[in-house]
Design a protein that fits this description.
The protein has about 120 residues and is mainly α. It has five helices and three strands. The relative contact order is 0.12.
């Protein structure tokens, strides 16, 4: 079984950095946890990052939509009930950082283009 103790300082720093770039809290925590744990069951991720199941599910769903995380299921070894959800980073964490950098650069370029247009319009008074 994996070490599912609470988050360490590196994970907290990753979460904080992701949030400062506009990633919401639950997805940021999930990414930090997945970066450390690797492929992991939903319950283990919940315990590691200190979120409840619905929060992890919502956070991971947004990461799946971005193409960064995959979700599979594993049968429980005993008893009945739903299978365990298992999450995996589909791309290396460095690729996620590169995606975020590209998004930020694209937004900055659009803002710069708007500023340039406003400068031209301001001169045409």
């Amino acid at each position: 079984m994996k070490d599912i103790t609470r988050m360490n300082q590196t994970e907290e720093d990753i979460t904080s950095g992701l949030q400062s770039l506009g990633i919401k809290r639950a997805p940021a925590l999930a990414l930090a946890g997945l970066h450390s744990l690797g492929t992991t069951r939903a319950i283990d991720l919940e315990q590691r990052v200190g979120l409840r199941q619905p929060e992890v599910s919502i956070g991971v769903t947004s990461l799946i939509k971005r193409g960064w995380v995959s979700e599979t299921y594993e049968k429980k070894t005993s008893g009945k009930g739903r299978p365990n959800k298992v999450y995996t980073l589909k791309v290396p964490f460095t690729a996620i950082v590169a995606d975020l950098e590209a998004e930020i650069n694209e937004k900055a370029n659009k803002k710069e283009a708007t500023l340039n247009k406003l400068r031209v319009l301001a001169k045409n008074k």
